[in-house]
Amino acid sequence: MRFFILSVIFIKSEGLEVLASNIDDLSCSVCKESADYVHEHPFDSLSDVSDAMSQRCKRYNQYANVCQNTLDTFLPQIYQQAHDPLLTSSALCIRIGLCQNKQDSHIH
Fold it and tell me: Domain named Saposin B-type: which ranges (predicted)?
């Protein structure tokens, strides 16, 4: 009986790791998409970008709240840094911690 309970806990724990990884990937995608939007619409206000990106969050269905939380927390920083023409969306999102540098992921 104890083994069964431990197995269920392990499976649930493993599922949470997968979920956390997916949420991290989603936050990275939202960051890049937001930065790309600012690059494409450099004269839009922060409020305009927020409104447009909030509409885009709806397509994430059950993860729309994760998208919106990412925007609520990071959009002002993304907006400010995305106006630097020398900073790519990927580099920006790595800098603020929403994406991982793929080169670093191979180093252990």
Answer: 24-103
